[in-house]
Amino acid sequence: MLKTDQQERYARHLILEDVGEEGQQKLIDGSVLVIGAGGLGSPALFYLVAAGVGRVGVADSDRVELSNLQRQVLHKTENIGTLKVESAAAVLSQLNPEVDLVTYSSRVDRANIEGLIREYDFVIDATDNFESKFLINDACVSKGTPYSHGGILRFRGQTITVIPGQSPCYRCIFPEALEGEDAIACSKAGVLGVLPGVIGTLQATEAIKFLLGVGELLTGRLLTYDSASMKFREVAVRKNPACPVCGEPHV
What we know:
This protein is an alpha/beta fold. Helix content is about 35%, strand content about 20%. The protein has helices at about 5-10, 10-15, 20-30, 40-50, 85-95, 115, 130-145, 170-175, 185-190, 195-210, and strands at about 30-35, 55-60, 100-105, 120-125, 145-155, 155-160, 220-225, 230-235. An eight-stranded mixed beta sheet has the order 3-2-1-4-5-6-7-8, sandwiched between helices. Helix 4 (about 40-50) packs parallel to helix 5 and helix 4 packs parallel to helix 10 (about 195-210).
């Protein structure tokens, strides 16, 4: 049974037929790791914590910079120079003090990623570089941990959900990391400030749906969004038998 204050806090969830008290308890018992507390991570973290996901991890080794504030709405001007995970935890704990917020200020790399993701039911890739995206995909597939990929650049964004052993993974689409000019980042190409708000919120939606066990996840479907034309497009993606991570020899 939910406590009285929980019944009030999550009242709009409780009246949903596909959620109710049983579903809300699933969220409270669930856990999500968000890797990246920037543009994508900000809206994802806000909505996961507001929804009452019981344990939310946030991993980011960067500090808040003035140039972040155009899109990374989790942080404030007064937080410039502060570790992003500390800035995030301060805001999110005020939003919902019941959530267990776990912060990781060390850079996520090959040495520690598997230890991090094994503690969580679902992972959100909210990073901004190909190296990290391949690292997260490979580790999640290896450990069988479901995750949501998100990417943004200029006016466009994309997202797909990966359920290891069932759906295509990120490397089925991009087998190898891009290099040089092909791997251009937002810091050089720019990004519309509101764009990560759309993609990051979609990623949080996928995490919540997964924990609830409701709806249809974005598996085998790459959802793209062009904010300039205000158009969404869905691209069917099939498992690549030759995928270096989830292909037939690796399954």
